Amino acid sequence: MSEVTRPEATRSEVTRRTLLAGAAVNALAADSRIVDPHVHVWKRDPAFPFAEGARVPERDAAPETLLELMKANGVARTVIVQVIHYKYDNRYLASVLKRFPGLFQGVCRVDPLDPAAPDHLSLLTAQGFRGVRLSPAGNAGGDWFRGPLMPPLWKRCQELKVPMTVLAPIARMPEAAVLLDKLPGLTVVIDHMADCPIDQPAELEKLIALRRYPKVFVKISHTWSISKQPYPWLDAQEYVQRLHAAFGPERLMWATDWPIVENVSTYARALSVVRDEMKFLNAADKDWIMNKTIERVWPFGA
């Protein structure tokens, strides 16, 4: 009797283990679809000095630390945005991209007040960077955003087929629209929901107005930053819900903004608030917001 049943038990156990292994592979595959489109890295290294006057946190944000967080949270790939600590010297980020091919893509910075900025962008694109970030302040110091040097730089972005990434307060969104009127085919990514103040919900319409440009994308990051509530930052989730209704998931992307997020929360919560807490998003929405939208702008390939 035992000689007959033992093979059956063995087959059953093998089947169970196969199913468990398959489930683990499927879970890994699901995790591998997650791409984080916005982090920063920096490290104290005399070969890559910080910009004069830069106020750099005492703790480094090394790519090795980032890779540990990615692994712990099931994030497969990441877009690194040139941090302001180096200003327009992109050499450190270039070295990181070279050290970790396939895992990261890089968004550079160029000096928006330099007439040669378009040519600098061309050189950086040839070195492997994919896109540029501009960050005009809301005060008069950022008025260059509506000045004569912007159209040539934005046009060069379109010619190079790389995205323009904009970190700007909500009040500057109409100025972005003026530039987009001349270049409606340019891919533009608005960072962090334009940091629309949570107590000024009507202002969000200035960002929503950009939906008429089919290649404008919005990062729904910074819920943790603009919220006046504890996790899961439900007041800021209302902004995400409005943007979801306006743009659809195909033009929204999450992001951690690591390590800046650690001033308020954690990398894990910047992920879980989208993956687990935004109840108005279905599985297909999340697939777009956490992977497919990002890959439209920053394709990593297989």
Description:
By secondary structure, this protein is α/β, with parallel strands linked by helices. The chain folds into two domains: about 30 residues; about 260 residues, Alpha-Beta Barrel (TIM Barrel). Helix content is about 45%, strand content about 10%. It contains eleven helices and eight strands. It has a five-stranded parallel beta sheet with strand order 4-5-6-7-8. Strands 1-2-3 form a three-stranded parallel beta sheet. Helix 4 runs parallel beside helix 5. The chain is globular, with a radius of gyration of 22 Å. The protein starts with a helix and ends in a 5-residue tail after the last helix. The N terminus is likely disordered.
Q: What is the assembly state of the chains in this entry?
A: single chain
Stated plainly, the CATH topology of the largest domain is called: TIM Barrel
The ordered H/E elements are: HEHEHEHEHEHEHEHHEHH
Largest beta-sheet details: 5 strands, parallel
The number of E-state strands comes to 8
The number of helices is 11
Topology (elements, then pairings):
Elements: H1 2-32, E1 35-39, H2 63-73, E2 77-81, H3 91-99, E3 104-107, H4 117-126, E4 132-134, H5 150-160, E5 164-166, H6 173-182, E6 188-190, H7 204-208, E7 216-219, H8 223-226, H9 234-247, E8 252-253, H10 267-277, H11 283-297
Parallel strand pairs: 1-2, 2-3, 4-5, 5-6, 6-7, 7-8
Features of this protein?
8 strands; 11 helices; 10% strand; three-stranded parallel beta sheet; 2 domains; TIM Barrel; 302 residues; single chain; 43% helix; disordered N terminus; alpha/beta; five-stranded parallel beta sheet
